[in-house]
Structure formats: C-alpha cells, structure tokens
User: Fold these one by one.
Assistant:
Number 1:
Amino acid sequence: VKFRKSAPSTAVPLPYGLLNEMDKRYAYVVDCRLARAWSATPPDADAARAFAKGLARRAVEGVDVPSAKTVPAARRTFGDAKAPDTLSDGISPRDAAPLRRRLYWLPPGQAAACAVDLGPAAWVDEL
C-alpha cells in the first residue's frame, strides 16, 4: 500500500460514520462484529427466531469489489462529494451492515480513498 505525501484538499471520511477525516499516514481496517451479548446461544426457540428475524430485516452490503457504486455507505469515501447522507429509500448508509472486512487508505495521485476486500466481516464468521 502506497500513501499520499500531501493531505487531500477536502476531508475524506471513512464509511459508516466511523471517522470524519482520514489521515494520509494511515490505512484503516473497517470490520464489524456482534456485541458480546449476541455471542451466547439463544435460551429458547423464540429468542432464536427473534434474532433471525432481526438479522433478516437488516440492510446488508456484501460486494467483494468496493467502489462508490457498489458500497453506498462509502460513496463519500470514494470521492462522490454529492452523495446524500441517506439512501433513496430513506435508510441511512450507516444502517447497512457490512458483510465484508475492508482496508481503506489514501493513495498517491487520487483525490479520494481506495479500498481492498479482506474477506468476510467478523460477525459473519461468528454466525
């Protein structure tokens, strides 16, 4: 991974509202894991069903080639300054749970970030 030598002219945020401005000196791994309370086995079938229903209702995003078009939560990260704060259906980009772990950084010669896929997110492995 090669890093920029100078800061970008405008702030480049990390997706999912994690950071308002990326630092040119660092690469950031964005991963998602379940809270510890969810790692326990559900006590009964009703609790297991409720967990499965909640999970099924969750908006997810799981492409393995991240870009502004394929990862709505990262549109601003990839340089789309006109990206709205919410998706067209009214769901915040922060609400789409990532199925993939990704590495983001600011490369030389680009105004925005780059990203590579690092495999399934931790919460997917935990399930």
Number 2:
Amino acid sequence: IQFESYLMKGGFCLNAQRAAQGIPTMVGNPDDASSKIKIAMLDMNLQKHRMAMGISIQVKEAQEIENIKQREMDITKEKIQKIIDAGANVVLTTKGMDDVCMKYFVEAGIMCAR
C-alpha cells in the first residue's frame, strides 16, 4: 500500500470518508497561510424536504402531486444554495445528508462530511 503525504504549513485534517466521488479531497492552498476556508458546522438534516407526518392533502389531478414533489425539491435546493451563498468551502453536519444534497455540493466544489 502506498500512501501520499504532504507537509502543510497551516491547515486542518479531517479523518472522514468522502460520501461521493466528486467531493474534493482538499480545499484551499496548503502552502498559502492566507488561503481562506469557511466551514459550516450544522446540526441539522441535509436531506430532501418532506412534508411533516400527519398532514393530509387532497389532490384532484396527478399534476398537483408532481407540483408538490417539485416544490419539495426546490425547498431543498434553496436550503443548500443559502449555505453555498454564505461562502462555505466545507460543510460538516451531525445529521444525515442524502444524495440530492450531495449532488448540489459536488456541483459547487464544496467538501462535505457527516
């Protein structure tokens, strides 16, 4: 087994497995102490938004169901976009993170771990 090692002038190492292959393994420049990293530490689920249990909705057309599903996806994307807009390079959460959220972080080049 061959390991890569690198001496960093300033930085932080996480012992976490990437949840998706597209997630970066390193953020910032380890040789540049002025390289800025913003870490979002969250105690919330990063999962597709779902309506609360016990809510009953009556629909008359199948299109209404599709509209509800689309709105759930939009709420999830808006939540992730707010984290991205805050400038986070790294997202750490104590709760779950599903594939939908992971996809948005991978597209934005943000490292995330649970």
Number 3:
Amino acid sequence: AYKIDSLDKSKMYSVELGFAELYDPNCGIGKRIFDIRLNGNTVGRNVDVFTAKGCRTAYTMNYDVQPNSDQAIEIEFIKRDENPMVSFIRIQEKAGTSTSGTSSIFVNAGDTNERTSYIIDSN
C-alpha cells in the first residue's frame, strides 16, 4: 500500500498508475490478477496487465481522486492471483483547482533492485 499525504483535501488530483508485466512466468492470461483501491474505494477489479497489453508493454490507468479526511491519497493493490505489482505512481493536482500553479508527485515503485524515489515538481 502507498500513502501520499500532506495534500489539500479541497482539491482534486489525477492519479496515474503505470504497469508493465516483466516477469516471464506471469506473461499469460490470468497469471497475475489484482484489484486497485483508492481511499478505500475499489476502482479496478480483476486487473490483468498481460491481458490488457501483453508482456513488456507499458499500461497506464488514470483516476481523479480527492484526498481523504487525513489529507492523503491511499493506494492499495489487493491480491487475487499472484502478487500485485505497479511500476510507477504519478499524482498531479488537477488543472483549475489551484491558484498557485500545479504540482506533481512521482513515485518510482519499480522492482526491489531500485530505490523508491519521490520527485516533487511545482510549476
């Protein structure tokens, strides 16, 4: 699970989730299936990246979300078959919801050989 906090709960944010099935044994229909929850609400059921895009091909899903009462966006991946995975998470303030420009947060959620990085960009 990921929790991005210190957000303005009066604003809307675009959440972009990036995936790519890179593990050869899971390159097949139904090999890795999971659900996606944003702030406790299921927004993706039975996600199967291979079925959507094949092996080693980028796949993104986008959602508009308002932070919860804790000023956070919580992202959960629920296992159905095999462990869930995500390659990156980008959270960007929706245009028109700020008077001080836009900002985005990028989380590199890659494999265990990479460090998780947070890039905060304010325009």
Number 4:
Amino acid sequence: PATTKAPEHKPVPVVIKPTGPWVEITTFGLDLGGYDKPQVTVDVRLKGVENLPSENVTCDFTEASFDLKVIGLDGQSYRFLKNNLEKDIIPAESGVKVKKNHVIVTLKKVKGDYGYDSWSDLCAKGKRKTPGKKDDPQ
C-alpha cells in the first residue's frame, strides 16, 4: 500500500519590527547644495541595504528633523536621527531612496525671498533659533 506522506510544514516568515536596540548611524556623506539648490542630500552607506524589503527602510520628516530607520539589515536595526536641522525643510517634499549599498535622504529646503537658504551644516550648533516674523511694511 502507498504510504501517504504528511505534508511538509514550511516555516512561514513572520515580520517582527524590532523597536531596538538601534545601531546608531554615525558616518554619512553630505551635499548641502548651494543657495541655488532646492535640496540637501544625505548619503548613508549600508552594505546590502538594497536587498531589504522597501517597508524596512523608513524616514519620518518634520520641519526641523528626520528619522531614518533601516530594520533587519544583517540582523541589526540602524537609526539615523537628526532633530536639530540647521534650517527648516518641507517634510512633504523630502524623501528617501534606496540604492546599492546606499540610502539617500533628500531634504527639501524652504525657499526664501532670495532663493533657497544656504546651509553651512546639517545640524545647527546649539539651539535652533526660531525665526521671528518679519514686520510687514504694508
């Protein structure tokens, strides 16, 4: 008689989003763009990051910060949080792209009266100054 073989139980991958501990990302490339450039570009090198599912690479933006998270890369979760940006950004127009061995974060600059703000660094030294409202002469 033919023996019926029990169906094989294949393990189902369960996606567990760890909340930590985070490995802090400390090295990155930076292109501040000039006063004529609409964005600041941050280049984070992470070997093999392009192999992760897209939902594992997230970045939350506010006017003064960004929080890049890379989850499950070689068993580690990486975080790159900058919450004291030198100038304001436009969160809705900022974004993140994954390339081979790189994560590119683009921060959209706020356009001023005479073009884009010129950044001298990614983060402000010390406390950020909240810009006061200009007196409207009219």
